[in-house]
């Protein structure tokens, strides 16, 4: 009979290795989903303020600057995911010292990277915008905005890092609550600093960026103060400051596993740029219809992204604990949730497509018919995308990061872009819309194949000696053992210490 554990408290990460999988996974994914929705709504609200009060040039400026910000965040996304998986595996093994070692090294890495990005980006912001071909009337706005965004990068990176670490430890609620604080501050501060309210000067686009800087700095400070006040067990105390010295084995794991995951974000971004370039060639009405559909798709993919992230953390804790039967059930439950939530949302948006798309285009827009047509063809691809994202999250929990990258490269650049390019002479613009479900279906089939027959169960996050682990009958391949000590000669009671 499993031994009882103390009830979870805000200062104690949640144990994802026990209990009913369905309710636990749903409760863990819900705050992640809420955070994604809040960030998107925050961006939409800020775009409304900027577009209405500063004009189209300013709106174009923020679009160009945000492309750079997306790349900056995407560059460290993978490293953050790698740190999350390492912490989750350590928590699953009940290896608190190992988790703190990962946190200390990762914190030093993120702080160093953020300061370097800020120092390099600040003097180069205008040159980067010129290289991107930013319109001349948008350039001054974009440069003023981007310079302050580079100053905000250390706060953005630190907040994202702490949120990832807490989720890896099983706590998705705390990052969500503090993200609500950041979003609320940003929404309030943007019009005040942009337009000048009371004694505040009107700063225009620079005010919008300064609002983001202040909101993230205050949110980060509040989160750190809360963790210290609650004596969170992952908090690194004064006597443990040596943990901030980089452990190069962990650094190598962060880069070796994190960079391929970050590269996935870059490939997705590049593929979307390629697609919109093809759409632009068909005229402004087609582009407007595609843009309206993209607004809907942003929200359609959120359940899958939240469930996939939750599955990755939950699976990683169970990998660390050696509960391989639960890993398989987590994957099945995650896929089931995705079909229900994403499928239900797709059905709703197809039923109400005219009303939903007219929010962005207006009832009288000539682009509305185009938007409804392409949406009916392409929106189904997100059901396939959701299954892929969930399975990618599970296989990454062991450290298998290259196969998902290869599958994404093949389906995006070997199927989606060539399909849309080569079949336009035959299918016209519909070739672009059909390329979405075609590539997404293949990605789902390949991810299912790799999950079923691939070697992801033998992957590992850290190099080092490992012990054999008894594997359940239903697991078709040898699973990895708990990670051994970074020093293979360091033993205790005849067993290698975890991490």
From TrEMBL:
Composition-biased stretches (Basic and acidic residues): 487-499
Annotated membrane topology: Multi-pass membrane protein
Transmembrane regions: 20-38, 68-91, 103-124, 144-164, 176-197, 203-227, 248-276, 296-316, 337-357, 377-394, 401-419, 431-451
Domain of life from the UniProt record: Bacteria
UniProt keyword annotations, A-Z: Cell membrane, Membrane, Transmembrane, Transmembrane helix, Transport
UniProt region (Disordered), positions on chain: 476-499
Location(s) in or outside the cell: Cell inner membrane
Keyword Transmembrane: yes
Annotated signal sequence range: none
Keyword Cytoplasm set for record: no
Database matches in PANTHER family: MULTIDRUG RESISTANCE PROTEIN YPNP-RELATED (PTHR43549)
NCBIfam families, alphabetized: matE
The protein, known as: MATE family efflux transporter
Taxonomic path: Bacteria, Pseudomonadati, Pseudomonadota, Gammaproteobacteria, Lysobacterales
């Amino acid at each position: 009979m499993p031994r009882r554990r103390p009830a979870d408290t805000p200062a104690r990460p949640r144990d994802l290795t026990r209990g009913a999988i369905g309710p636990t996974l749903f409760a863990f994914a819900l705050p992640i989903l809420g955070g994604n929705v809040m960030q998107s709504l925050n961006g939409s609200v800020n775009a409304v303020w900027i577009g209405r009060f500063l004009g189209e040039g300013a709106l174009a400026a923020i679009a160009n600057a945000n492309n750079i910000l997306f790349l900056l965040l995407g560059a460290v996304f993978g490293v953050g995911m790698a740190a999350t998986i390492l912490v989750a595996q350590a928590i699953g093994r009940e290896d608190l010292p190992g988790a703190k070692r990962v946190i200390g090294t990762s914190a030093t890495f993120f702080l160093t990277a953020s300061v370097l990005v800020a120092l390099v980006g600040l003097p180069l912001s205008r040159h980067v915008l010129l290289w991107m071909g930013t319109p001349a009337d948008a350039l001054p706005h974009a440069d003023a905005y981007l310079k302050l965004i580079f100053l905000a990068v250390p706060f953005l990176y630190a907040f994202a890092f702490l949120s990832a670490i807490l989720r890896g430890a099983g706590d998705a609620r705390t990052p969500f609550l503090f993200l609500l604080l950041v979003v609320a501050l940003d929404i309030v501060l943007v019009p005040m600093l942009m337009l000048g309210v009371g004694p505040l000067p009107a700063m225009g686009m620079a005010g919008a960026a300064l609002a983001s800087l202040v909101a993230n700095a205050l949110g980060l400070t509040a989160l750190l103060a809360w963790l210290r006040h609650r004596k969170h067990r992952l908090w690194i105390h004064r006597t443990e400051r040596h943990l901030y010295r980089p452990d190069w084995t962990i650094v190598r794991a962060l880069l070796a596993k994190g960079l391929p995951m970050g590269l996935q974000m870059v490939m997705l971004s590049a593929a979307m740029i390629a697609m919109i370039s093809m759409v632009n060639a068909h005229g402004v009405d087609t582009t407007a219809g595609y843009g309206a559909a993209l607004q809907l798709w942003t929200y359609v993919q959120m359940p899958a992204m939240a469930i996939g992230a939750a599955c990755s953390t939950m699976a990683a804790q169970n990998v660390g604990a050696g509960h391989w039967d639960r890993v398989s059930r987590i994957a099945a439950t995650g896929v089931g949730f995705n079909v229900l939530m994403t499928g239900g949302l797709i059905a709703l948006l197809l039923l109400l497509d005219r009303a939903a798309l007219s929010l962005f285009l207006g009832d009288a827009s000539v682009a509305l018919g185009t938007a409804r047509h392409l949406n009916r063809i392409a929106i189904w691809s997100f059901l396939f995308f959701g299954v892929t994202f969930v399975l990618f999250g599970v296989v990454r929990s062991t450290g298998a990061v290259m196969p998902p990258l290869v599958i994404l490269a093949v389906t995006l650049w070997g199927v989606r872009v060539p399909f849309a390019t080569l079949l336009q002479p035959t299918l016209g613009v519909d070739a672009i819309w059909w390329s979405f479900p075609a590539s997404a279906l293949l990605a789902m089939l390949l991810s299912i194949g790799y999950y079923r027959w691939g070697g992801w169960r033998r992957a590992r996050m850290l190099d080092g000696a490992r012990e054999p682990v008894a594997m359940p009958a239903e697991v078709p391949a040898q699973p990895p053992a708990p990670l051994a000590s970074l020093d293979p000669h360091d033993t205790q009671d005849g067993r290698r210490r975890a991490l």
